[in-house]
Specification:
single chain; mainly alpha; 88% helix; 0% strand; rod-shaped
């Protein structure tokens, strides 16, 4: 738009005023382009954070599944060891079988209770961590949605302002003046490129 030239006609509008108007429009478009570039970078950063969080969620789910399997296996192993010890003590010490079996049963119950308490604590930690993770993802998704809405509003507002400016310039110039058509076509092409970007 800076390289546009207008033919001078008799009793036409001031070329200086036309140049100033075009300069203002060009500066306004460049300013909007800079703002759009900044919002584009922010939107890209939000998308990258969202992708990272989704990857973390998958990894955390896999970790939770592994922890649950490990906890169950440990519990079964501990219970098996306790039961084996109880059986061995009962076979080796028939004279004190009742006392030894009772003692082994107490040990088994205590180990089982500790294992269940530990598993419960792990489940609570997992639930708390997942709740926080889900809350963070919702917050980022909301931020991304607001950014998209702001970008859309900026596109619409910029387009409306420039089209209104073009109409105002068109009303100031005679209908036979070709520079208005060139200005309008150039502004429309710029917006199409902005929307494609």
């Amino acid at each position: 738009m800076e390289n546009m030239e207008f033919k001078k006609v008799f009793l036409g509008y001031s070329p200086k005023q036309v140049d100033e108007t075009i300069s203002r429009l060009t500066a306004d478009i460049e300013q909007k382009d800079e703002k759009l570039a900044v919002y584009g970078e922010k939107f890209k950063e939000l998308d990258e954070k969202l992708e990272n969080l989704e990857s973390l969620q998958l990894a955390e789910r896999a970790m939770i599944a592994d922890m649950m399997i490990t906890a169950r296996q440990d519990s079964e192993r501990i219970l098996g060891i306790a039961q084996s010890e109880a059986d061995n003590i009962s076979a080796d010490a028939k004279d004190s079988a009742e006392l030894i079996v009772t003692e082994a049963w107490k040990v088994s119950e205590r180990i089982k209770a500790d294992s269940e308490n530990e598993a419960g604590a792990i489940r609570r930690q997992i639930r708390n961590g997942y709740s926080q993770f889900e809350s963070d993802m919702n917050s980022i998704a909301e931020t991304a949605r607001i950014a998209r809405e702001q970008l859309q509003t900026m596109f619409e507002t910029s387009e409306n302002r420039i089209m209104q400016t073009i109409k105002s310039v068109q009303q100031m110039l005679p209908e036979t003046e070709s520079p208005v058509a060139l200005l309008e076509n150039s502004a429309t092409a710029d917006f199409e490129l902005m929307n494609e970007g």
